[in-house]
Amino acid sequence: MDLFNIYNYVSEEVVFQIIRVALIIAITIPVIFMLRNWARSLFTKKYSTHYGMLAGKVVFYSGIIILLITIMGQLGISLAPLLAGAGIVGVALGFASQTSVSNIISGLFLIAEQPFKVDDIINVNGTIGIVMSIDVLSVKLRTFDNMFVRIPNEMIIKTEVINLTRFPIRRFNAKVSVAYREDIGKVREILMEVAQKNKYSLSEPEPQIIFEAFGTSSIDLDFRIWAQVNEWIHLKNTIQEEIKKRFDEEDIEIPFPHVSLYAGSESKPLPIEMVTKAATLQKEADETAD
What we know:
It contains 8 helices and 10 strands. It has helices at residues 12-46, 49-74, 79-96, 98-113, 153-158, 184-197, 232-249, 277-289; strands at residues 121-124, 127-134, 138-143, 148-152, 161-163, 169-178, 208-214, 219-228, 262-263, 268-269.
C-alpha cells in the first residue's frame, strides 16, 4: 500500500500547496468571469456597447494577473527576479515591436476620441462594414457580404474614416436626367409628389431638387431626400423605382447619350443620301460610256 502513498513522492507541504493553488483557481476563475460579465453589462447600459466590452476586458485581464501573482506567492516564487528580467525583456521587445506599440497608442487615441463605436457602420479606404469590436491593436469589421476584416489601429488613425451611422438621419442623392424637351417645372412637381408618398422619405428636412447641369444629351437634376439612418437603404431602393414608374406614367423621357451632327453657318442638318450598290455601279458605267 506504500506504493500508492503520495507522501512517498512529495512532501506534505507540497501537497497542501497544490491543494491551495487548485482551490484558488477553482474559486477565482468563476469570480473573474462573473465580474467581467457584470462590468460589461453595467457599462453597456450606462454608456455604450464599446465601453462595456472595454470594461469587461480590463476586469478580466486584471483578474488573471492578480490570480497569477497569488499563485506564484503560494508557490514561493519571488517576483523581484522576474520583474528585473521582465524589464530587460521589455526593452528588447520594445525595439522589436514598434508597430504593435504604435497600434496600442493609436487604440488609446481611438478610445479617447471615439470617432465610432461598436455597431456603427464605417467606411475605411473603401471597406464598408459594421464595427464588431475596438481592441488594443486593431478594429474588427464585418462587411455586408459577411467577411471579417481586421484593420490595425495605426492605419485608422492615419486614414480618413467615414462614419455612416453617426447621426440619426442620412441623405440620399438621386441623380435624375430628363430630355431637353421636358417641362422642368412639371418634373419638379412629379419628384416632390414621389417623395411625399414614399414612406421612408422625411418631410423635415424637406426634399430638395438642385439643377445640376446641362448635360450632353439631358438636363441633369440632383434630387436630395432624407431618411432615418436605419431606413436609408430602403429609401434608396424604393425612391428610384417610384421615379421610373411615375416618369413612365407621365411620359417623361429619360434620355440615353446620343450625338447630333450639324454643318454650315446656319447649323442646318447635314444631308445624307442613301445610295444602293446597283445604282452606284450604273452611274459609274454611264460616266465611263460618256
